[in-house]
Amino acid sequence: MLSEFSLIDRYFAQRARQHTRRAALGIGDDCALIAPAAGEMLAVSTDMLVEGRHFFADVDPHALGHKALAVNLSDLAAMGAAPLGFTLACALPKPREDWLAAFSAGLFELADRYDCELIGGDTTAGPLNLCLTVFGSVRQDAALRRDAARDGDDIWVSGTPGDARAGLGVLRGEWQTSGADAAADVAHFRRALEYPEPRVALGLALRGVARAALDLSDGLAGDLRHILERSRLAAAIDVDALPVSPALARLPRAVQLQCALAGGDDYELCFTAARDQREAVEAAAQQAGVRVTRIGTMSALTSPAAAVPAIAWRDAAGAPLDLTLQGFDHFHAD
């Protein structure tokens, strides 16, 4: 039977020590020692994934290993930070070797792609819970901060938000796909949900081009408000401009809007940039190999005393749409 320390060594520490380059001191001591390049600052973010809240009990452990790190790398992408390393703390109901082998494989495959080293962590017995802290590096003047948007900025999104929420809906039986493409659509949605792609390359390419940015973890309707609150601005969104995947386009329009605007779990980037940066934004997206779409505009607050800056939802003709949308809330979600 695996002990705590044999588990750590077999499935995590041995692999991590083979790739330690950026940490001055990695796994094996009371603390890791890590420093950014000269002139840069550490970007640090923590995310927790809890069984039953963020993933199903029967999820593929390889997919879970990928997603656990992907959601953290997505935070670095949103800041325009280059990955350096991460820590992993996990509670496990029981140390099953087949589960650990698949989980660590998914984790390290993504870590190797982004040259992000495992530098420490902890394990204990308990309900399945994964907590990762990721470290990145970025110049202070290049960081994409939520408080940096300006009146008149374009609002952009990467990829096709909504696919992950569509996948959750399919798995829950909230709606069904149909037609000749049904099986392919389900596979597409499920991959979007279980294997999100952190937009690290796009975040790096947008440094010096975009102003404010964040990743769409809780849905556009909820997440965009974070930029509005920090930047003290309002926004108008052209709902008809939202990029929709072919699979999502085959679902009813009401489902499309719910998924794309309030679904969450996509980990695409939402960012703002000055109008005169449109060509630069497109060039950055081409460099990163990622689709980006301009979906709206930032504007000054009509009421500076407003507690929550508003989002005006409009169609392509500019007509207002009456949409009641709210992003994902970890304490009030179904």
UniProtKB/TrEMBL annotation:
<feature type="binding site">
    <location>
        <position position="75"/>
    </location>
    <ligand>
        <name>Mg(2+) 2</name>
    </ligand>
</feature>
<keyword id="KW-0808">Transferase</keyword>
<feature type="binding site">
    <location>
        <position position="30"/>
    </location>
    <ligand>
        <name>Mg(2+) 4</name>
    </ligand>
</feature>
<feature type="binding site">
    <location>
        <position position="146"/>
    </location>
    <ligand>
        <name>ATP</name>
    </ligand>
</feature>
<keyword id="KW-0067">ATP-binding</keyword>
<keyword id="KW-0460">Magnesium</keyword>
<dbReference type="InterPro" id="IPR036676">
    <property type="entry name" value="PurM-like_C_sf"/>
</dbReference>
<dbReference type="GO" id="GO:0009229">
    <property type="term" value="P:thiamine diphosphate biosynthetic process"/>
</dbReference>
<feature type="binding site">
    <location>
        <position position="46"/>
    </location>
    <ligand>
        <name>Mg(2+) 1</name>
    </ligand>
</feature>
<dbReference type="InterPro" id="IPR010918">
    <property type="entry name" value="PurM-like_C_dom"/>
</dbReference>
<dbReference type="Pfam" id="PF00586">
    <property type="entry name" value="AIRS"/>
</dbReference>
<comment type="pathway">
    <text>Cofactor biosynthesis; thiamine diphosphate biosynthesis; thiamine diphosphate from thiamine phosphate: step 1/1.</text>
</comment>
<protein>
    <recommendedName>
        <fullName>Thiamine-monophosphate kinase</fullName>
        <ecNumber>2.7.4.16</ecNumber>
    </recommendedName>
</protein>
<feature type="binding site">
    <location>
        <begin position="121"/>
        <end position="122"/>
    </location>
    <ligand>
        <name>ATP</name>
    </ligand>
</feature>
<feature type="binding site">
    <location>
        <position position="47"/>
    </location>
    <ligand>
        <name>Mg(2+) 1</name>
    </ligand>
</feature>
<dbReference type="InterPro" id="IPR016188">
    <property type="entry name" value="PurM-like_N"/>
</dbReference>
<feature type="binding site">
    <location>
        <position position="328"/>
    </location>
    <ligand>
        <name>substrate</name>
    </ligand>
</feature>
<dbReference type="Pfam" id="PF02769">
    <property type="entry name" value="AIRS_C"/>
</dbReference>
<feature type="domain" description="PurM-like N-terminal">
    <location>
        <begin position="28"/>
        <end position="138"/>
    </location>
</feature>
<comment type="function">
    <text>Catalyzes the ATP-dependent phosphorylation of thiamine-monophosphate (TMP) to form thiamine-pyrophosphate (TPP), the active form of vitamin B1.</text>
</comment>
<feature type="binding site">
    <location>
        <position position="75"/>
    </location>
    <ligand>
        <name>Mg(2+) 4</name>
    </ligand>
</feature>
<keyword id="KW-0547">Nucleotide-binding</keyword>
<dbReference type="GO" id="GO:0009228">
    <property type="term" value="P:thiamine biosynthetic process"/>
</dbReference>
<dbReference type="GO" id="GO:0000287">
    <property type="term" value="F:magnesium ion binding"/>
</dbReference>
<keyword id="KW-0784">Thiamine biosynthesis</keyword>
<feature type="binding site">
    <location>
        <position position="215"/>
    </location>
    <ligand>
        <name>Mg(2+) 3</name>
    </ligand>
</feature>
<feature type="binding site">
    <location>
        <position position="218"/>
    </location>
    <ligand>
        <name>Mg(2+) 5</name>
    </ligand>
</feature>
<dbReference type="InterPro" id="IPR006283">
    <property type="entry name" value="ThiL-like"/>
</dbReference>
<keyword id="KW-0479">Metal-binding</keyword>
<feature type="binding site">
    <location>
        <position position="122"/>
    </location>
    <ligand>
        <name>Mg(2+) 1</name>
    </ligand>
</feature>
<feature type="binding site">
    <location>
        <position position="265"/>
    </location>
    <ligand>
        <name>substrate</name>
    </ligand>
</feature>
<feature type="binding site">
    <location>
        <position position="54"/>
    </location>
    <ligand>
        <name>substrate</name>
    </ligand>
</feature>
<feature type="binding site">
    <location>
        <position position="75"/>
    </location>
    <ligand>
        <name>Mg(2+) 3</name>
    </ligand>
</feature>
<feature type="binding site">
    <location>
        <position position="47"/>
    </location>
    <ligand>
        <name>Mg(2+) 2</name>
    </ligand>
</feature>
<dbReference type="InterPro" id="IPR036921">
    <property type="entry name" value="PurM-like_N_sf"/>
</dbReference>
<feature type="binding site">
    <location>
        <position position="217"/>
    </location>
    <ligand>
        <name>ATP</name>
    </ligand>
</feature>
<feature type="binding site">
    <location>
        <position position="30"/>
    </location>
    <ligand>
        <name>Mg(2+) 3</name>
    </ligand>
</feature>
<dbReference type="GO" id="GO:0009030">
    <property type="term" value="F:thiamine-phosphate kinase activity"/>
</dbReference>
<feature type="binding site">
    <location>
        <position position="45"/>
    </location>
    <ligand>
        <name>Mg(2+) 4</name>
    </ligand>
</feature>
<keyword id="KW-0418">Kinase</keyword>
<dbReference type="GO" id="GO:0005524">
    <property type="term" value="F:ATP binding"/>
</dbReference>
<feature type="domain" description="PurM-like C-terminal">
    <location>
        <begin position="150"/>
        <end position="300"/>
    </location>
</feature>
